[in-house]
Each structure stands twice: as structure tokens, then as C-alpha cells.
Amino acid sequence: MSGATNLAGGRRASARLAGLLIVAATAAGCATTPARRGPPAPDAPFAFRDPAASLPAGTLSVEDAERLARGMEALREGELSTAKKRFSTGAARAGAPAPFRVGLAYAEILVSRYGPAREILEPLVRVSPGFLPAAEALADLDAAEGRELEALDRYRSLLSAFPEDPRLLLREGILRRSLVEKRMADAEGALAANDTPAARRAALAIVDLDGSSPAGYRYLSRAAEAEGRLEDAWDAAARAHALGPSDDAWSRHAAALATRTGRYAEAVDLYTDVARRDSSVSELLDEARIQFQVQNLPEAAQRAALSTRVTRAQFAALAWWLVPEVRDARLPAPPEVAVDAVDRPESQALIRAIALGLFPVARETHRVGADVAVSRAEAAALFRRIALLAAAGGELPECLGQDPPPAAKLEKCGILPSTQSRTVTGREAVKGLEAAARAGRGGDAR
Q1: Which residue from 170, 281, 321, 423 has the least number of CB within 10 angstroms?
Q2: Which of 427, 380, 439 is nearest to 408 (CA)?
Q3: Cβ atoms of residues 312 and 304 within 8 Å
Q4: CA 389 to CA 193: how far, in whole Å?
């Protein structure tokens, strides 16, 4: 006999323990069903591993290994008194009684005497936290008695020592998901009751339970948003999106928060990704793009973009900054002098616009009407000229073929919406300039 006897005996006992609960129930007078052979399923409430598992080879003598194997065999057959006697005899021996005490705990568990089992196991685990059979059985007891957090901590502690153990991985995952679902329900209920502190506590508990799940950060974001703390809401929303980027509904929520906090580049990225699968966000994407462009414009052009009635000078400034072809085009002739085009923030852009034929200069007054609001009819002609510059001799799309283009066609191709207003807003100018230039370059105006 050798240490191999111990291992073989342990494996035989473990392979037969699936029927232990049924056998124990039979001994207690319950109804019987045929016992199933083989080890317990990984998701079974108790593992009943070989009590000598994880101990160094040779820890048990040949005699003790045989006694332990016979005790486990008696336990499998439902002969609890015999099993206890053999385990008790081994536990009383000098040297290594721990596996026999685990066997005694197994016997108590089989008849649902969880208290006595715990009294046996806890001292063993205090002395040897990494003693797998005892620590796992204690974790199983915690789970069976509803101490889910304690059980989860024990499984995680064991996984640090046995990271590839399939049962520990499965049990940890089952408990973690169960606890996360409960905390999610808590957070949802707290938000519905407008109890944001409680929602935040539940969200932080989710993050602590499963930092790789986006759920905790989503609830943190929603709680912060409900409290008006939009910066914190965005930070949590971005973390949630990074952990769960395939959730389009959350991507849209995060994009909306990005927009509300002035993070238009992030909003564009988020909406662009969603738009690949959901065209309903196209308008939101366009709006985010416009906001991003406006955000990066110089002060004078920003004022123009935000104007409710964009002037010729403002239109020229927007065309200068938004359409590279306006800045880079070769001037056909020196620009006419316009007295109202000098000594103003938009002077350079307005003088170039005059030279490119966008705005005429009155011969009588030598004025370009820098502060005159651009009418919708004038804007239609301007957008066509911008498209011609961008086309660089190429053909224009059908909606820009006429000079000036009909309003209905401009609206159809997304360059200028049809409204009752006689003038153009800065936002309409920004969108129209972008769309017209895109159409001139041979792309879709939209």
C-alpha cells in the first residue's frame, strides 16, 4: 500500500457521492429513488470532495487513507453511524485528523444538521484557509443558508489558490450573477422611488460584486443624472459603454449625456456606431456633428453659428471655416472694395467671399451689406455656388442643377429645410454649407 491507495480510495469515494443525499434521506425515513453513480454535478449544493484533497502527498498514512476511504464508502451507502465511527476514530488519532473531521461534517450536512457541520468546519478553515474540502464545504453551507456574500467571498478566496477549478468557477459565477440581479432590482426600485442615495449604494454594490459588468456603472450614471450631476453621470455612462459597447440603447443614452455635457466629439462617435445598425439616429448624429463643428470654430464663427438670423458677414465666416475650398480657391480677380467689409471680425472671410462671387458690392454705395440677413432665396443660390467650388469642375447633383435651386429640391437633398421664415439661422447655414460642399465633392448631401 502507498500514497496511491489514498488517492484511489478518495477518487472512488468521490465518484460515488452523487447518491449520498438520497441515501441519507432514505435513512431518515423519506421516499427513495434509485441512486445515481458518479461525482456530483458542479452546480450541486454541496461538492463532497475527497476530504484529503489539496493536502500534500503522504500526509496520511496508508492506514489512515484506508480508514478515510472506508468512511466515505459507508457514507455513500447511507450507513451514517458506521461512517461517523470511522471518521471519529481517525479524527482522534495523532497526526492529521483534519480530513476525518471534514468527513464528520459531511455526515452532518447529509442529514441537514448545518449547525454542527459549521462547528466542525470553521475551526479547520481558521487554521488552514486553503484547505479545499473544508473551505468549500463551509462556502457551500453559507450559500445553502442564504449567506450569499459570505459564500461568494469564500469561493473567490479559494479561486485565488485554485484558479482553474471548474466547480469553484461555476459556483462563484452563479452567486455573483444572483447577487448582481438582486442589487439591480434594488437600484431599479430605488430610482423608481426617487431614492437616489439608495440607488447609488446598490450600484456601488454591483460594481464591487462584478467590476467587469456595465450594470453598476449604468445605475451610477442614472442616479447621478437624476440628481442633476451630469458630469458624474457622463463619467459613469462612459465606463458602462466601455464595458458593454454592443448595447445600442445604452450607447444612445451615453451619446445624449455626451451632448448635454458638451462632449460633441464623443457624441458623434457613439451615434456613428449606432447608426451602422439603426438609421433612426441619423438626425441625432447630424446634430452632434454640427455641434462639434460649432464647438471648434473661432469666436466670431461660433457667434454666427448660434445666430437666429445669419448675416452675409457671418455666412462668409462660416463658409471660410467650414469649407476648405472657400479658403483655398484661387481668386479669379482682386476683390472689389466694400467699405463695410473692413475693420470687423469677419473681414478676411467676407473679402474672400466677395472675390469668389458669393456676394456683390453695390456700385453706388460700395457696400456689400455685411449686416444684412441672408434670405432663404439668397441662401439657395449661395449653397449652389459653394457646391460648384467644391465640385472643382465636376457635375452637381440634380437637386443643385438649377440656378437658383428650387427650395423643394434643396429640402429633399437635406441642404436647406423649407420653413415659413424668410431668413436663415446660423445652424441652418452650418448644415447647408456642409451638405452643399459634400454634394459638390460627389458625396451624398445628407
Answers
A1: 170
A2: 380
A3: no
A4: 58
For the chain, the structural domain boundaries read 3-163, 176-244, 305-440
Question: In 3D, which of 104, 74, 75, 79 has the Cα closest to residue 89?
Answer: 104
pLDDT the model gives residue 78:
86
CA distance 249 to 232: 19
When mean pLDDT is compared across 8-12, 241-245, 422-426, the lowest value belongs to 8-12
pLDDT in tens, 35-58: 333 455 677 889 898 998 888 877
The answer to whether 99 and 51 have CB atoms below 8 angstroms apart is yes
Burial class (CB in 10 A: 0-12, 13-18, 19+), 172: buried
Note the pTM of the prediction, 2 decimals.
0.73
Residue 345 has which C-alpha cell? Answer: 471680425
User: Residue 21: what residue type?
Assistant: L
3-class secondary structure per residue, 99-152: HHHHHHHHHHHHCCCHHHHHHHHHHHHHHCCCCHHHHHHHHHHHHHCCCHHHHH
Was domain 176-244 assigned CATH 1.25.40?
yes
Instruction: Tell me the three cell numbers of residue 175.
Output: 452567486
In sequence order, the β-bridge partners of residue 373 are 311
Cell of 243: 464595458
Nearest to 405 by CA among 376, 428, 373, 430: 376
Give helix then strand counts, H and E, for the chain.
22, 0
Q: Which long-range contacts (CB under 8 A, 24 or more apart) does 327-332 make?
A: 327/352, 329/356, 329/389, 331/355, 331/356, 332/356, 332/357
